[in-house]
Amino acid sequence: MAETAAAGARDEAETVLKTADQTTPEDLLAADGYLFCAPENLAAISGLMKEFFDRCYYPVLGKIEGRPYAQMVCAGSDGENAARQTARIATGWRLKQVQPPLIICTHAQTPEAILAEKTIRAEQLDQCREIGTAMAAGLSLGVF
């Protein structure tokens, strides 16, 4: 999902794709906007994503206000709690949500399905690409 969104964004603007564990507060300060992408695990954002927010929250607090963000969640059932969790963090940073969260549901409900590699359908990946393209275009045009 993240790779597809980044590919769409690259069509419109300079784009950096980083994993949560490799992203630093300096990366956030250098960016004009953000597209947060995370799996939902046990009705919350993944541990790596939570660690990213924990590690970066205070160093950028008050320094990125007003910047646009969007988010994508990959979930086994509904993904709503992970989306709310990310939105609350973004609210604390005073970021501006530029579209509702995209939640892709894999319907993985058994231990085997949860642990299996997931395949995101082409039409869902098209939605990810559209988010990346729209985010980058909005930044390039000064809409956000």
Specify the oligomeric state.
Answer: single chain
Structural class: alpha/beta
Helix content: 40-55%
How many domains in all? 1
Poorly predicted sequence stretches spanning 5 or more consecutive residues: none
What is the CATH superfamily label? Flavodoxin domain
What's the total number of strands? 5
Rg from alpha-carbon coordinates: 15 Å
Strand content: 15-25%
User: SSE string, helix = H, strand = E?
Assistant: HHEEHEHEEHH
Q: Profile the largest sheet.
A: 5 strands, mixed
User: If you consult CATH, what is the topology?
Assistant: Rossmann fold
CATH architecture: 3-Layer(aba) Sandwich
What is the end-to-end distance? 23 Å
CATH class: Alpha Beta
Secondary structure tally, helices? 6
Rounded mean pLDDT score: 96
Characterize the overall form: globular
Characteristic key phrases:
144 residues; 6 helices; five-stranded mixed sheet; Rossmann fold; alpha/beta
Set out the fold topology.
Blueprint: H1 2-10, H2 25-30, E1 34-41, E2 44-45, H3 47-60, E3 68-75, H4 80-92, E4 96-97, E5 102-105, H5 111-115, H6 122-141
Description:
This protein has 144 residues and is of the alpha/beta class. It has a single domain (19-120), classed as Flavodoxin domain (Rossmann fold, 3-Layer(aba) Sandwich), CATH 3.40.50.360. It is 47% helix and 17% strand. It is built from six helices and five strands, in the order H-H-E-E-H-E-H-E-E-H-H. It has helices spanning 2-10, 25-30, 47-60, 80-92, 111-115, 122-141, and strands at residues 34-41, 44-45, 68-75, 96-97, 102-105. Strands 1, 2, 3, 4 and 5 form a five-stranded mixed β-sheet that branches. Strand 3 (68-75), helix 4 (80-92) and strand 4 (96-97) form a beta-alpha-beta unit. Helix 1 crosses helix 6. It is globular.
